Amino acid sequence: MHGTIITPFQLLEDRIIIIEKGKIMAITDKKEDFALLKNVEIIEAKDKFVVPGYIDIHIHGGGGSDVMDGEYEAIKQVATTHSRFGTTAFLPTTMTMSKDKIIRSLRSICEAVKKGTAGAEILGIHLEGPYINPEKKGAQKEEDIKKISLEEFLEFNQASGNLIRLVTIAPEMPGAIDFIRWLHQQGIIVSVGHSNATYKQVQEGIQAGLSQVTHIFNAMRGLHHREPGVVGAALSSPKLIVEMIADGIHLHPIVLKMLTQIKESEKLVLITDAMRATGFKEGTYDLGGQEVIVTKGQARLKDGTLAGSVLTMDKAVKNMVTKVGIPLSKAIQMASFNPAKCLGVEDRKGSLEPGKDADIVILNKNLETELTMVAGKVVYRRKEI
């Protein structure tokens, strides 16, 4: 009650959101509609923003746990940690590691979907690697990078309970175009990442069904005036949806601003690429079997390579508003509706509308998460509000 509702396509003042059985039943300004309800909990949001829950399609870890730990409790910890920062749904994201470790991780995610997480909802799995280019490996281990194998991928998907929704690959690698075509036919999203592809090779990927770009500018062939590369394809191809890590480290605020000026706003998706130190103290951690030092809000390998982030979705939204200068409603759209649309779940998630899941976040004026609700259930409350 009484907060500013950002749907995110409208700003609504002095309205009431009525929730029943995990769904938004109505958004009304008629107090009498509310008065008819019995045995209800009233959540007051005066002087606050009420926004759709954030959907993060690229999370490796948080709260001291990592998706690659291969344990149900680790997945649960990641889900509950990120719910503290406004994330109500996500894709646990694997890394380039040994086949056995990937399979173990995929099985643990499948188990988490069956048992539930008590935090953000799992909407599927993002398989980042192992079919990438060693030249752009980033923080992925080179010895675990594999040749593309449909047979192996089928093993992965079986282990996951057919939960793989998004695959990051390098389209220039042998067999990639046929693999992209096959994935697209199965309804699995294909994203270019950890790639040294030329502009032409990315275009061939798009023709085969490639539709997304993993953490743009990072771990990919950059923009050159004689070879536009992966970045040039991302900026100029209207079909490509672009992931952005808006922490001010992976991408300079001016680069983020340029992306908002060049790309259609619906094609921009905020992600965290968060690793296990997110929401935890600074120090030395593990990511994909490599030592990562987390200090001053940055996660890096010993050689200085960025190794994921400790970004949270509410901070990403805030950075887009305060450092980049876009309207709050647009930043929220990039964190909620856009990822929902990219995953094909915009009919039930991503905006505050009657009939949709009651995935709702309350932000204070500093854009920090005060309350997170998943399917009508409060999973995080910063304080009594």
Written description of the protein model:
The protein has 385 residues and is α/β, with parallel strands linked by helices. The chain has a single domain (53-348), classed as Alpha-Beta Barrel (TIM Barrel). Strands 6, 9, 10, 11, 12, 13, 14, 15 and 16 form a 9-stranded parallel sheet that branches. Strands 2-1-5-20-21-22 form a 6-stranded mixed sheet, with no helix packed on it. It has a 3-stranded antiparallel sheet with strand order 17-18-19, with no helix packed on it. The termini are close together. The chain is globular, with a radius of gyration of 20 Å. Helix 3 (99-115) runs parallel beside helix 4. Helices cover 28% and strands 25% of the residues.
| CATH-derived topology | TIM Barrel
Terminal-residue CA separation: 11 Å
CATH top level is Alpha Beta
The residue fraction in helices comes out at 25-40%
Uncertain runs: none
Strand content: 15-25%
Largest sheet: 9 strands, parallel
The domain tally reads: 1
- The computed structural class is alpha/beta
How many DSSP E strands? 22
Estimate the global geometry from the Cα principal axes.
globular
Question: Brief description of this entry?
Answer:
The chain has 385 residues and is α/β, with parallel strands linked by helices. The chain has helices spanning 31-35, 72-83, 99-115, 150-159, 176-185, 199-208, 229-236, 253-262, 313-324, 328-335, 337-343; strands at 4-6, 11-13, 16-20, 23-28, 49-52, 54-59, 61-62, 65-66, 87-94, 121-122, 125-128, 164-169, 189-192, 212-213, 241-245, 268-271, 283-287, 290-295, 298-301, 360-363, 369-374, 377-381.
